[in-house]
Specification:
It is a single chain. It is built from eight helices and three strands. By secondary structure, the protein is mainly alpha-helical. It has two domains: about 60 residues; about 90 residues, Arc Repressor Mutant, subunit A (Orthogonal Bundle), CATH 1.10.10. Strands 1-3-2 form a three-stranded antiparallel beta sheet. Strand 2 and strand 3 form a beta hairpin. Helix 1 packs antiparallel against helix 7 and helix 3 packs across helix 4.
Length: about 190
């Protein structure tokens, strides 16, 4: 998706004026993204990646990317561990003798050993990390910032490719949305 407006750095790297680029739009978009990332970033507890990997592998063998996807799906997108946290955890679990890796088709598939199954079963009394993550989150850290980022991305796209008339219409829509959001807070 190189050059698209989605994801990290969704705007072009250059800043400034140009067709469809109101002054400072990209700086404002960067600031908005930074605010959402700082205030709404999920906080994962120490050991949550390890516990999540064990819980998922207790169900069936998987490769690393599948584990990452499964954690993201079970947390409703609120938590997607990085490969930089999952793969070292897998290596650590293998070193402890809790999992084994079998390579097939260029991918390693991980499965629990008997000791790994015992460890996973011993932790079934505790909630899974994605459940406790959701309890800590209370919804403020997932739906609202996601909606805000989608809105910011749409505004950036209009700013980048829209005509001056479309940009003016977008500004009106955003101003109305801002007023309506503040009216929600004003309600008793």
């Amino acid at each position: 998706m190189s050059g698209s407006f989605m994801g990290e750095g969704f705007g072009p790297k250059h800043r400034g004026q140009g067709p469809g680029f109101p002054g400072g739009l990209w700086d404002a978009m960067d600031q908005l993204r930074d605010v959402f990332e700082q205030r709404f970033s999920p906080r994962v507890g120490r050991g949550d990646v390890r516990a999540a990997v064990l819980a998922i592998l207790a169900e069936k063998p998987m490769h690393g990317y599948q584990i990452i996807q499964e954690i993201e799906a079970r947390s409703d997108g609120a938590w997607k561990p990085s490969p930089g946290s999952v793969y070292p955890t897998l290596q650590m679990l293998a070193d402890e003798g809790l999992i084994t890796a079998e390579e097939s088709g260029g991918k390693k598939t991980y499965s629990l050993t008997e000791a790994g199954r015992a460890e996973a079963e011993a932790s079934t009394e505790r909630s899974t990390p994605w459940e406790s993550f959701g309890a800590r989150d209370t919804g403020r850290g997932t739906a609202l910032p996601k909606a805000g980022m989608k809105l910011a991305q749409a505004a950036a796209q209009v700013g980048r490719t829209g005509t001056p008339e479309q940009v003016a219409q977008a500004v009106e829509v955003l101003d109305e949305a801002r007023r309506r959001l503040y009216s929600i807070l004003a309600q008793d």
